[in-house]
Amino acid sequence: MLPSGTSLAHLMTKAIDRNTESVLELGPGTGVFTEALVKRGLVPEQLTLVELDERFAYLLTRRFPGARIVQGSAARLSGAGIGSDVAYGAVISGLPLLSMPSRTVFRIVEGVARRLGPSGNLYQFTYGARCPVAHAILERLGLEAHLLGTVIWNLPPASVYRISRTRVDPKVTSASEPHVTSDAHTALIHKQNPTVMCWEGERVSRQ
Ligand SMILES: C[S@@+](CC[C@H](N)C(=O)[O-])C[C@H]1O[C@@H](n2cnc3c(N)ncnc32)[C@H](O)[C@@H]1O
Asked: Which structural domains are found in the chain, ordered by start?
């Protein structure tokens, strides 16, 4: 899959600026959206990047020194300590949600909902014809999706959804965190580069 184009990066990031104190990016790949955020005035220290692929995670440490880079699955946000101390002003996601089982999508979006600040939004793009987060999942988590636009000249054409809270849902507030266990796979270990962490026990596939 080709990296996203600059028009899609613009649509994904245009509502975010340096006043958005902390931004979480899921599936940054080579960092197309990350670069757009930096061009919008954010400094790497405002960014947490969660990337499954070890090579991309390493590349991101070279491109964005100072950013907090986590090598691991975004599906583990809920149980891991990452970002639990931060209420993110925005989450941007390049994750291929359409190719994931709905249970995984639920875990990812639930983890995001726990970490979004009160007025924070999740920005998710898709190559599909509708929001890649099923209505049932959005409803369960007290979220709603709004189509921001479609970039037809992206290869392939892509749409961006803004996902935000419809109500305060006790199931996704920090008050319900105690049921999350701190088992081995949620522990964090530092790898060679101190800004790169991965969840212990994470299996990283090399392609
Ligand atoms: C379609 S690419 C998007 C890359 C980049 N954001 C862009 O738009 O060009 C999807 C990215 O998500 C990463 N990814 C896939 N599953 C993931 C997961 N469960 N957790 C974190 N990253 C994941 C892939 O390694 C890849 O870098």
From this structure: 6-192 (3.40.50.150)
